[in-house]
Structures are given as structure tokens and as C-alpha cells.
Amino acid sequence: MRGRGATAGRRTRTMGPEDIDLLSGTPDKGIIRTDRSELTGEMVDKGVYEWGWDDSPIVLPLALHRREWNAVYIAAHLAEYCGARLVAFHVKSERERIDTEFRSKVESFLSLLRIKFEFEEAKVKGQPSFETIAQLIVDQAKVTGAQAVVMSAHKEGFLLSLVGRVSDRVARKNQARTVLVESPRPEMKVPDHPKKVLVMVKEGTKSRDAYVVAAALTSLATTPDAELIATQAIVLPPTVPLDAVDFSETLKDVEREFAYSVADSIRSLGRIFTPRLLVVRELGRDISNYAQQEGADLMVLTGRSKKFSELFGKDTKEIVRNSPCVVLVVFPARA
Q: How far is Cα of residue 23 from the mean position of the Cα atoms in its chain?
């Protein structure tokens, strides 16, 4: 281990090349492959590139509000990475007035990326409920044969958060993958060229899609030096000192298994992820502080269920609310 650091409430451990053999999945070999050209045909045959998304459509629900720009950016680059068709979907009420300037901006941006895209619209009578809008989005994803729904998720008031936002309802209902693009503050934007992306992993979760998303958003020629950091957060009880990280055999086992899983993602995606353990007292506060300290441009949370609050437990909303950057909450497809 190297690169240890600590604050009053957390401690990080960075695993270096000496910890991971990317080819055999065993520690202490230190072999790193940095791009696909270095991988042999035999390795590909063994499933090195079994990860990734296919070219099935990606649905981008839009209310055509300017605060949805981050979702447009994320969905467009995922579609470009996959070679997928992007379907922008809008639920239009009878008296709704469309922001034509924003729609033109979206169309110009998508044309610039040279991806296949189209706008679909569902007209409804009266003012549709959140449940109706969410169901229409889910139905559109099903009819389209979408591999994923990527949509904006806004910070709302207490009552609205309590009953459930449209985005939360879609994440619970959608059979395909769902990526919620959370912007803690309206003015917060994803940088054009993200330089540092954090992938936060909770033990026992299915993190594959989160790794794919992070790799896709840093795969452009304009982001060759982007740093990808995969971090597994572990909560220590108040009675256990942070220094226990250095001596606990249980934590060493967790660390070893995490290193193997990160090595698997590197083999499969051809991108380097730096693995770290983040030992914390309070998930919500400490993860937000960690992202701030790292100067992250983007954070990706990965989870194990369709219920928003079960990703990192009740701390998920605190992580998002206090994040110094845009957060992507990735829900895997239902089996």
C-alpha cells in the first residue's frame, strides 16, 4: 500500500501497481496494460471486452428546461461512445410553451457530435401527474428497446422529495438501466473535458455500469489524461480507531477483493482506474468532503437496487446535496 492519508473523520488507502496484476488477478505482479492495442487476441477471446453497452437506443427524457443541460451532455456522450441512437422524449401538456431556443441548442450540440438522434413527443390532456409522466417515459423506453434511460434529477423541496420526483419514479419502474444526472445546484455544469472522475462503490453492489459510464465520459480524444478513481467506502463504528485500517485482516480481505474487481474493470474496458479504500465515520458527509478534497469534476454512484435511498442508505441524498460536482446515480438493469 501507498499514498495513505487521513483527516479527522476519514482515511484513504491508494492501491498502486504493486497491488494488482491486471492479467491474472493476483497481487504483487504489477503488470499494467494501458490501451487496447496491447491486449492479445487470446485475451479478447477470454472476454476482456465483455463489458460495455451495445448500440441499442438511449432514451433522454426532457422537459426542455435549461437546467437539463447536464443530462443532455451525459446522454449524448454515452450514445457517442456506444454508437447508439439517442431518443429525446418530451411529455407535452396542452398549454405548455416550449423553450425553442433551448431545443435548438440541444439539436446543434447533438449534430456536432454526429450521433443519430430524434425527438419524440407524447401529448397529454390537462396537466399530467408525476406518476403519469414517469409511466410514459418507462413505456417509451420499452417501445424503443432502449438499453438505458438517462435523465435529469433536480434538487427539489422537502414535500416533493418526500412523495418522489419523476426521475425517482422512473428509476424504480424502468426495466433497463437508469442514469440519474443530479445537479446539486442549478448553476453547476459538467466540464467539457472532465479531468477527474470518482466512481464510488459500495461493497456487494453491481458496479459494472458505473465503470462503463465513467470510461465512456473520459474516452474522447479531448480527455486523454483524465484520471479515473474507483473508491470503495467502508464505515467504521465510532468505537473502532481509524488506525485499525492498518491492522485489520478483515479490511485487508475487503481491500484485496476490491483490487481484483477494479482489475477486472481495467481489463474489460481498457481504461486505468486507480483503486482506493475510503474508511469513514459518516458516509454522506465524508464522501462529499472526499470529492471536494480530490477536486472531482464528476462523481458516479453505483447501487444495488431500484430504490434511490438504498444505494448508500439514507446517506445518498446527503452525498448528492453536498457534492462539489455533478453526480451520476447509476441503476443497473433488472434481471
A: 26
Per DSSP, helices labelled H in the chain are 41-45, 69-82, 100-113, 130-144, 158-163, 166-173, 208-217, 249-269, 283-294, 316-322
Closest CA to 87 of 98, 72, 97: 72
Mean pLDDT score of the chain: 79
Residue 254: band (very low, low, confident or very high) from pLDDT cuts 50, 70, 90: confident
C-alpha to C-alpha distance for 200 and 262, rounded to whole angstroms: 12
Asked whether the beta carbons of 235 and 283 are under 8 A apart, the reply is yes
- Rounded Cα distance between 129 and 135, Å, is 10
At residue 71's C-alpha, the angle toward residues 162 and 290, to 5°, is: 70
Residue with cell 459518516: 282
Enter the pTM of the model. Answer: 0.81
Q: How long, in residues, is the chain? A: 335
Q: Which residue type sits at 68? A: E
Q: Which of 115, 150, 177 is the last residue of a domain?
A: 177
**135-139, 197-201, 203-207, 265-269: which has the highest mean pLDDT?**
135-139
Q: Domain range holding 119?
A: 58-177
- Cβ neighbours of 234 (radius 10 Å): 20
How many structural domains does the chain have? 2
- Which residues pair with residue 276 across a beta bridge? 14, 231
User: 128 and 224 share a domain?
Assistant: no
Among 147, 177, 207, residue at a domain's last position: 177
For residue 242, tell me if it sits in a domain.
Answer: yes
Which strands sit side by side in the sheet containing 227-235, from one edge to the other? 2-6, 10-14, 273-280, 227-235, 196-201, 298-302, 326-331, 177-183, 148-154, 58-61, 86-92, 117-123
Condensed to tens digits (0 to 9), the pLDDT of residues 95-110 reads 888 889 999 999 999 9
Asked whether residue 228 carries a pLDDT value surpassing 90, the answer given is yes
User: How far is Cα of residue 117 from the mean position of the Cα atoms in its chain?
Assistant: 22
